[in-house]
Design brief:
The chain is of the alpha/beta class and 281 residues long. The protein folds into two domains: 61 residues, no CATH class; 202 residues, Rossmann fold (3-Layer(aba) Sandwich), CATH 3.40.50.150. 30% of the residues lie in helices and 27% in strands. It is built from nine helices and 13 strands. The strands form three sheets. It has a seven-stranded mixed sheet with strand order 8-7-6-9-10-13-12. The longest helix is centred in the N-terminal third of the chain and has 17 residues.
Amino acid sequence: MIYQSIKQCRICGSKSLKEVLNLQNQPSSNALRKKLSDKEHKIPLKLLYCQKCSTTQLSATANPKYLFNHYVWVTETSKSAKEYSNLFFKRVIKKTKKNSFVVEIASNDGTFLKPFKKSGRSVLGIDPAKNIAKIANKKGINTLSKFFNNECAKDIIKNSSNADIVFARNVIPHVKDIHSIVNGINTLLSKDGTAIIEFHYSKIIQDELHYDSIYHEHLFYFTLKTMTNLFKQYGLYAYDVDKSPISGGSLVLYFSKSKLLISKNLNDLVKEEKIKKNKPF
């Protein structure tokens, strides 16, 4: 089965879903055909707004194996991504106390782990795309080719240890079993560790009409409110934020297992979002 339609919110289970945008049936963004005669699968591309928890999400879930088992995007091919990987590293090292063991979820070819390894940290990448994980391992970035979830987190701890830093860049919105991945982050993270989540910010998508950010890989379109509420369910609390130049503007949230002092940058963005009243499209 290529896709399944949802009948309730993936976050809270509510059936109070309101359609806010319908882009009709579309092929997946990376489904490139070798011949025009090759069969093309089309999947509904419709946005729903949960009237209970405020999460905006797609109406259809494309089969993850169909989307990700053989991936065509390789991070290192992007000059801007390579440049940003060094800025990302500097920001993370500056804002974290413990950072000797770093794990990246959906690590692609290991470009963002490379600066950490170069600086002497122990690194581990996790990525379901076998072809991409193979590239990363050839480059010397230890990478597991699998989907990350709570069971995967337990296996990593068993074979290594808890992680000081767990980061996931533009991947949380991709995940069908989102509760398992967030629970897995909490399991994997050490008591004093830091979880770092980069995500396309729905306020920017809406304000600047980034319609090309809406595609089947992105099941969710998070605000600060919906992202922080999700992680709070698993004992992870946001305390700081950076702005990312990737994908037309993303946010990078920092989480800890204890309630730390919230930075001015995060407070200011939360206030700005409240003024907007978190209304979709």
